[in-house]
Backbone:
């Protein structure tokens, strides 16, 4: 059943991709093979070479590296072709489906690599350009949700007992995306402001119907309520954000309500099918949101992107709990959580400022800054487990989720140029990338036992770096502008 569903997903995705390419001539001109996809492809190749070791956090058989390479290739293709929502969802469905065919027995690490490859390309494009390039972030979040869902399916439905439906749960996320993309291709599109929302909800409802049929025939443990929660939540948020986010006001209340709806929907989906259900709800939400995110660029689309990123972060956090089987002790966990919240909320404000400053620089400098930001995220993902030990990822992912809420509030509150800067520094793919990197690297870092003195030294060194950076910024702001005194004198 796993092979059948994965093969069907690839076939349906191929049809959707052809339809998307044929329809591309009616839309805006595709970006083409510009410097951004070229540099992203080169960096992806370099990172693939770095995954050649077989010791953790890498994997025997290079499955992590091959997964990363596939996800990055798909991301670069979406980046260069500029396809619409049908092509974006089709490309997102192909990644996990191919891996389930190639690495049939053990796709675990390959799925995580695929998710990392997709969000890497999207995060690089966002940070280097200060804006989204048509559809690549929607692709990255949808494929990350599909890979996380497949990985949670492996945890919940292992092949302990060989049945025809055992592997079907692994392949279901990719199949769900592919069916949603095909259904979206059938639903006509027009200039109506509400059409993107209607197309997304209609396509997701058709995918839900396909899940219902599968449940009735083969997959008795599947609970259709879980993805239904994602459809209702994201459909409701799309309507609210569209009504409240198109003007020049400050719709902070709708932004917080959006985060609240997401945080309420997550446990409802979890109760239906635990972590697997939560990931299916995020996946259904991605299908609902895709048309609006690709056809719109304003605050409403930014807030919907934020809600989708929050859903994906919650699913990723649940995967971490499943993989580590932690019992969440209460000794220093609260302290870790509070510190992570402070760091990640600060990042929600720092990323827009970073994007605004990068926008004033030349393209090579922007790309170099994007690479530096990626290195910083990796450093944080390594240092937190080294300092906080086994409970660091709980705090980090929780802080990232709250940082996502803070960014949504910031985007809603800001106006004019500030809103442009906030939307340029959207946090979804960057935060999801940080969560996935931390999830993969934590097992390596935990084997390194540091003394309390060494941990104190690391914190002190970081403090010195921060102080020096703040002093340099203060000196830069205090430096008088040339000609200012002459103008004052005149």
Residues:
């Amino acid at each position: 059943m796993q092979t059948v569903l994965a093969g069907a997903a690839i076939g349906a995705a191929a049809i959707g991709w052809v339809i998307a390419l044929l329809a591309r001539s009616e839309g805006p001109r595709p970006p083409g093979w510009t410097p951004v996809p070229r540099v992203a492809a080169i960096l992806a190749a370099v990172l693939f070479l770095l995954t050649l070791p077989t010791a953790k956090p890498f994997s025997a058989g290079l499955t992590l590296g091959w997964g990363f390479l596939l996800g990055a290739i798909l991301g670069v293709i979406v980046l260069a072709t500029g396809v619409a929502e049908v092509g974006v969802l089709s490309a997102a469905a192909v990644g996990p489906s191919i891996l389930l065919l190639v690495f049939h027995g053990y796709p675990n690490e390959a799925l995580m690599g695929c998710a990392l490859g997709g969000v890497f390309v999207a995060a690089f494009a966002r940070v280097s350009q200060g804006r989204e390039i048509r559809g690549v972030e929607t692709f990255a979040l949808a494929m990350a949700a599909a890979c996380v869902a497949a990985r949670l399916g492996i945890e919940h439905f292992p092949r302990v007992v060989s049945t025809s439906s055992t592997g079907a749960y692994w392949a279901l996320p990719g199949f769900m995306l592919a069916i949603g993309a095909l259904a979206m291709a059938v639903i006509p599109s027009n200039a109506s402001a509400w059409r993107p929302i209607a197309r997304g909800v209609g396509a997701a409802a058709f995918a839900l119907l396909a899940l219902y049929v599968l449940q009735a025939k083969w997959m008795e443990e599947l609970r259709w309520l879980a993805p239904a929660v994602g459809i209702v939540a994201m459909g409701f948020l799309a309507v609210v954000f569209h009504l409240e986010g198109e003007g020049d006001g400050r719709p902070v209340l709708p932004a917080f309500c959006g985060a609240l709806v997401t945080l309420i929907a997550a446990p409802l989906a979890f109760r239906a099918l635990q972590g697997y259900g939560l990931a299916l709800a995020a996946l259904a939400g991605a299908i609902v949101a895709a048309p609006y995110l690709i056809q719109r660029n304003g605050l409403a689309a930014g807030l919907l992107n934020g809600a989708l990123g929050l859903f994906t972060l919650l699913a990723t956090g649940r995967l971490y709990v499943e993989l580590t089987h932690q019992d969440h002790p209460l000794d220093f966990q609260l302290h870790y959580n509070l510190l992570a919240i402070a760091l990640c909320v600060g990042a929600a404000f720092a990323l827009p400022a970073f994007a605004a400053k990068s926008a004033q620089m030349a393209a090579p400098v922007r790309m170099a800054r994007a690479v530096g930001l990626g290195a910083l995220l990796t450093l944080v993902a390594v240092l937190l487990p080294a300092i906080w030990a086994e409970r660091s990822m709980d705090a980090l992912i929780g802080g990232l989720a709250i940082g996502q809420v803070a960014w949504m509030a910031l985007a809603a509150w800001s106006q004019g140029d500030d809103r442009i800067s906030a939307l340029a520094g959207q946090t979804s793919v960057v935060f999801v990338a940080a969560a996935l990197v931390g999830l993969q690297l934590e097992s390596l870092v935990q084997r390194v036992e540091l003394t309390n003195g060494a941990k104190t030294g690391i914190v002190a060194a970081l403090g010195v770096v921060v102080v020096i950076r703040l002093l340099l910024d203060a000196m830069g702001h205090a430096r008088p502008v040339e000609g200012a005194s002459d103008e004052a004198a005149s």
In short: The mean pLDDT is 81. Residues 252-295 form the longest helix (44 residues). Residues 356 and 417 are 10 Å apart (CA to CA).
